[in-house]
Write a structure and sequence with these properties.
By secondary structure, the chain is an all-alpha fold. It has two domains: about 70 residues, Cytochrome c-like domain (Cytochrome Bc1 Complex, Chain D, domain 2, Orthogonal Bundle), CATH 1.10.760; about 90 residues, Orthogonal Bundle (Cytochrome Bc1 Complex, Chain D, domain 2). It has eight helices and no strands. Helix 4 packs across helix 8. The structure holds heme C (2 copies). The site of one heme C (HEC) has 23 residues, from helix 1 and helix 2.
């Protein structure tokens, strides 16, 4: 007698391959929920999907280069970018930790008002007052200080040159090392 279809064992839902990639390979540095705990590895949770898509495409096509990320890029297929970006964008970002409140206060002034004399616009003009970013600009809020500092120095030196029109290079060139440390401290607390 044929087994009626309704009695057949339900097929186990196949694990989604892109989510599996995130929760096995990428989690080693970024954690499964995107809230990296190592200051050198960026938090991805709650990041803007459009920004994540651009960064992943830039990595895959060699416009953004980093020796720590590079060995894992062979596992990312161009067709997976949209889903990976959506996965991290949907994670809930955990709060960052301010280690030096006085430095953060100096950073707040740069973040909100920039430095007119040096030609630095306030970061909030693009990254938004609470650092949440939007469809055009990345979220910065709660990011690890060490990562933010490294990116600013890399934009300045040209090691990271995937910013359109050299926008972040021109901004970081006009900031002192001390100002970069301060603004990174403030961003961690947003
Ligand atoms: C061994 C650690 C490591 C692993 C594993 C790793 N990453 Fe990264 N990831 C990094 C580091 C370090 C950076 C910062 C690179 C830089 O400074 O340019 C980064 C940057 C990124 C960024 C850019 C974030 C931003 O704010 O600009 C994305 C997106 C990303 N990784 C996604 C992934 C995905 C998806 C995987 C899995 C396929 C993965 N990473 C695996 C270490 C890692
Ligand atoms: C005119 C708009 C604009 C202003 C003002 C601006 N940014 Fe950006 N920023 C961008 C854009 C666009 C990117 C994404 C570049 C890319 O595509 O890689 C970016 C990227 C960044 C990143 C990298 C984020 C990551 O996850 O890797 C950091 C850090 C950053 N900005 C910090 C700052 C700080 C600090 C200030 C103020 C001193 C500032 N930005 C002012 C537009 C701006």
């Amino acid at each position: 007698m044929a087994v009626p279809l309704a009695c057949a064992a339900p097929a186990l839902a196949a694990p989604d391959p892109v989510e599996t990639l995130a929760t096995t390979v990428c989690q080693a540095c970024h954690m499964s929920d995107g809230n990296s705990v190592v200051p050198q590895f960026p938090k991805l949770a709650g990041q803007q999907a459009t920004y994540l898509e651009k960064q992943l495409a830039d990595f895959l096509e060699g416009r953004r280069r980093n020796e720590v990320m590079e060995p894992f890029l062979s596992q990312v297929k161009a067709r997976d970018i949209k889903e990976l970006a959506a996965y991290y964008a949907a994670q809930v970002p955990g709060p960052g930790v301010v280690l030096d409140p006085e430095l953060a206060e100096a950073g707040r002034r740069i973040y909100e008002d920039g430095n007119e004399g040096a030609g630095v616009p306030g970061c909030e003009a693009c990254h938004q007052l609470q650092g949440e970013g939007n469809v055009r600009y990345p979220r910065l809020a709660g990011q690890h200080q060490a990562y933010t500092i490294q990116e600013m120095l890399d934009f300045r030196s040209g090691q990271r040159a995937n910013d359109k029109g050299g926008l972040m290079r021109r901004i970081s060139e006009r900031l002192t090392d001390e100002e970069i440390r301060a603004v990174a401290e403030y961003i961690a607390g947003l």
